[in-house]
Amino acid sequence: MSNTKRVLLLEDDEMLKGVVREFLESNFYEVIAVTNGVEGVRAVMKEDFDVIICDMMMPKLPGDMFFTAVERMRPHLCRRFLFITGHRGNTKINEFIKQVKGTMLPKPFHLDDLLEAVAVIQLRAAGR
User: Fold this and answer.
1) How many CA atoms lie within 13 A of 31 on its CB side?
2) Domain edges within the chain
3) In the sheet that 29-34 helps form, which strands lie side by side, from edge to edge?
4) Measured between alpha carbons, how far is 73 from 54 in angstroms, rounded to an integer?
5) Is 5-125 CATH 3.40.120.10?
6) Residue 42 phi, psi (nearest 5)
7) Nearest 10 degrees: CA dihedral of 31, 57, 44, 103?
8) What is each CA distance from 15 to 52, 76, 87, in whole angstroms?
9) 77 in Cβ contact with 44 (< 8 Å)
10) Integer Cα distance of 37 and 111 in angstroms
C-alpha cells in the first residue's frame, strides 16, 4: 500500500492549477486536478482524498455548493478541505468559511504557505 498522500485540486485557472499540481507532486503528493465542482463530485464519488484544495469561485458548481454535495455523499471528507479564493473580502464566502469552520488560503499565496496549510489539514483530518 502506498504512503503517498492524495490531493484533489479544484481550480478553474489553468495556469494556477498547473503550478500547484507540479509543486505538490514535487513534494510527493499524488494530485488529481479538475476544473470545476461537477468534475470534483465525480472524483469524490470514485475515491477518497487526504486533502481537497477547493477554489471558491468556479464555473458550473462553486466551492460552497461542491462542499455541500460532498457533505451529503462523503461527510468524512469535510474535515479535509482547504478553500482558496481571490475574493478575500466577499461576505458570502467569508460567512460560508466561518459556518463550516473551514480553512481558507487567500490568493495570491506563496507555495510554501500552501504546503503548510495542506499539512495542517492532514493533521486535522487525522484528528490531531
Assistant:
1) 22
2) 5-125
3) 29-34, 5-10, 51-55, 81-85, 103-106
4) 17
5) no
6) -60, -45
7) 80
8) 18, 30, 18
9) yes
10) 23
Cβ pair 59, 31 in contact under 8 A: no
The upper half-sphere exposure of residue 23, i.e. CA atoms within 13 Å in the direction of its Cβ, equals 16
Q: For the beta carbon of residue 112, count every other beta carbon within 10 angstroms.
A: 9
Residue 65 backbone phi and psi in degrees, to 5: -70, -35
What whole-number distance in Å separates Cα of residue 29 and Cα of residue 62? Answer: 24
Digit-coded pLDDT (tens) for 13-30: 999 999 999 999 999 999
The model's pTM is 0.95
**How many degrees, rounded to 5, is the angle at CA 87 between CA 6 and CA 21?**
25
In whole angstroms, give the CA distance from residue 42 to residue 103: 23
**Dist. CA 102–CA 105, nearest whole Å:** 10
d(CA 95, CA 27): 32
Confidence category of residue 94, pLDDT binned at 50, 70, 90: very high
